[in-house]
Write a structure and sequence with these properties.
By secondary structure, this protein is mainly α. The protein is built from two helices and no strands. The protein has one domain. It has helices at about 5-25, 35-125.
Length: about 130
């Protein structure tokens, strides 16, 4: 075990500070080829990232346009289906009205026939 005194610890701290200062003094400057190469590599990475983001944005726009076109087509088909359903309902209503009219005509004819038969029977009774 080492028994460091206060002065020993202080000297070690001073040496560490000097070493750190030397490290920063000896650090390469902005014009150093290594620094420039790293900056260029970072710039290329940023450009590549921007290109990917731009491509994704274009693809997203295409997908959104396709989705909008699909939705418009579905809406158009829904309108056509609704119009066809309305037309079918109108045809059915017309057929039902025609059948109702025919039924009323048949009922009237049957009623008229019963009335005529009653009158004829009454006439026969009076003669007979």
């Amino acid at each position: 075990m080492k028994n460091d005194t206060f002065q020993d610890r202080r000297a070690q701290a001073d040496a560490a500070r000097k070493a750190l200062l030397e490290k920063f003094k000896n650090a390469p400057g902005d014009n150093d080829p290594e620094v420039l190469a790293r900056q260029q590599a970072r710039a290329e990475i940023v450009k590549a990232r921007e290109a990917r983001e731009k491509k994704r944005a274009e693809e997203r726009k295409i997908r959104e346009a396709q989705a909008a076109a699909k939705a418009a087509e579905q809406a158009r088909l829904a309108v056509i289906a609704e119009q066809e359903a309305k037309a079918a309902a109108a045809r059915k209503a017309a057929e039902d009205a025609e059948l109702e009219e025919m039924l009323r005509a048949e009922q009237k004819a049957a009623r008229d026939e019963r009335y005529r038969a009653r009158k004829e029977a009454k006439k026969q009774r009076r003669k007979g």
